[in-house]
Design brief:
CATH superfamily of the domain at 2-176: Acetylglutamate kinase-like
Helix content: 25-40%
Number of strands: 20
Largest sheet: 8 strands, mixed
CATH class of the domain at 2-176: Alpha Beta
Bound molecules: adenosine-5'-diphosphate, aspartic acid, magnesium ion
Structural class: alpha/beta
Shape: globular
CATH architecture of the domain at 2-176: 3-Layer(aba) Sandwich
Length: 426
């Protein structure tokens, strides 16, 4: 008997009919002779709606992090109970569990907690007794504070992978509103093609670059524990995409470019006229780190000035737009000690990345990327690279067009139009 973990995202449980559809699918999996553990997300756009509600009763609800997490975890609890009710009504037998009941322990960081330990004893007990276990995704608890935490937006994927690792599951399936992992977001690039398989390193880079089909922490977890994932649609029988963490993927040919990802959630800060002396960059980024922001790209231009003593330079860096206001305030407060002249910020930027494991051994990828953007008159503001990724910053207005152009330039367009079955893409 195999143990299968199946995760259903928000659009898969968006309304009562969809929940009933998922209930049938899950019962079918059990009837085929498997033990089944199901992880659910909140229905449709519930999490966003809860955030809107919080903002309507408080100016800065996120600063009350404990209560904010308490609120957000309620979305997943609605889905888990409704799915359990639907399964039981169809003649199956389900038991639902919150994250803490399922033994998902995390650190104490509200809003973006990391899983530290998994003790899924109650889940194991339920499936051994013949029940389908349903677990609320996106949440855990911290033993020291005894409080409920959330795993960051999109975090139900991570719950599923963690349970698959903790239960030594035979298979971990992530069900969504598209047939699998595509060569680009099908909502932006209609010519995007579904990939049959992708290596975990490329998937990690794609997720980090903004492809929200999988939560980055889930991909990291899968890599660390050697869990293969199958990403597929709730609304079709397509076998989906296998994300290989185990040696089973070693036979796969490495694509030069597997995919293109876009991220509109970034902003840019430029610190103008900062003294070009040793230690300034450290001072600057200490202020940024203390404001609680993670930075992505950094560019420092060549210093200008009449001699070494009055040389100054400009430093630009990118960060999540949600952190922009806080970091600008912190830098303004530190202007005299840092000694810079002026600060500029821009949240109308977008990041475009091309990813492929074959880049390690092939040249010319940058030339194709920059050439395609130049031909379309799209300006590149910043560039960064890793061994298997090249990213550029453009204006956010041109980002979608840039993704389509670059996808075509790398010969990734397919003959059929990619299908999106549900969801609002919010
Ligand atoms: P769920 O609610 O099931 O977790 P998400 O909305 O988080 O679903 O993720 C699925 C969405 O991810 C798709 O609808 C699609 O718009 C987007 N997406 C972004 N990049 C990709 C990609 N490379 N392949 C497939 N989908 C992608
Ligand atoms: N409901 C949460 C979110 O919208 C978690 C998830 O869907 O994975 O971010
Ligand atoms: Mg998701």
């Amino acid at each position: 008997m195999a143990l299968i973990v199946q995760k259903f995202g928000g659009s898969s449980v968006g309304d009562a009919d969809k929940i009933k559809h998922v209930a049938k699918r899950v019962i079918d999996t059990q009837n085929a002779g498997n033990q089944v553990v199901v992880v659910v997300s909140a229905m449709g756009d519930t999490t966003d709606e809860l955030i809107d509600l919080a903002n309507s009763v408080s100016d800065n609800p996120e600063s009350f992090a404990r209560e904010f997490d308490m609120l957000l975890t309620s979305g997943e609890r609605i889905s888990m109970a409704l799915l359990a009710l639907a399964i039981n009504s169809l003649g199956g037998s389900a038991r639902s569990f919150t994250g803490s009941q399922a033994g998902i322990q995390t650190d104490e960081v509200h809003g973006n907690a990391r899983i530290s330990e998994i003790n899924p004893a109650r889940v194991r007990e339920a499936i051994d007794e013949g029940h389908i276990a349903i677990v609320a995704g996106f949440q855990g608890f911290n033993k020291e504070t005894r409080d409920i935490t959330t795993l960051g937006r999109g975090g139900s994927d991570t719950t599923a992978v963690a349970l698959a690792a903790g239960l030594h599951a035979d298979l971990c399936e992530i069900y969504s509103d598209v047939d699998g992992v595509y060569s680009a977001d099908p909502r932006i690039v209609p010519g995007a093609q579904k990939l049959d398989g992708i290596d975990i390193e490329s998937m990690l880079e794609l997720a980090a670059a903004g492809a929200k089909i999988l939560h980055i922490r889930a991909v990291e977890f899968a890599r660390r524990h050697g869990v293969d994932l199958r990403v597929r649609s709730t609304f079709s029988t397509d076998p989906g995409t296998i994300v290989y963490s185990s040696q089973a993927g070693d036979k796969m040919e490495e694509a030069i470019v597997s995919g293109v990802a876009t991220d509109k959630g970034q902003a840019k800060i430029t610190v103008i006229g900062i003294p070009d002396v040793p230690g300034k960059a450290a001072e600057l980024f200490t202020v940024v780190a203390e404001a609680g922001a993670n930075i992505d790209m950094i560019v420092q231009n060549t210093p200008t000035g009449s001699d070494v003593t009055d040389a100054v330079s400009d430093i630009s860096f990118t960060l999540q737009s949600g952190d922009l206001k806080r970091v600008v305030e912190a830098l303004n407060a530190a202007q005299s000690s840092l000694g810079y002249r002026e600060l500029e910020s821009d949240d109308e930027i977008g990041k475009l990345s091309v990813v492929g494991a074959g880049m390690k051994t092939h040249s010319g990828v940058s030339a194709t990327l920059f050439g395609a953007l130049a031909k379309a008159g799209i300006n590149i503001e910043m560039i960064s690279t890793s061994e298997i990724r090249i990213s550029v910053i453009t204006s956010s207005k041109q980002l979608d067009e840039a993704a389509r152009i670059v996808h075509t330039a790398f010969g990734l367009d397919g003959d059929t139009e990619a299908k999106v079955y549900a969801g609002t893409g919010r």
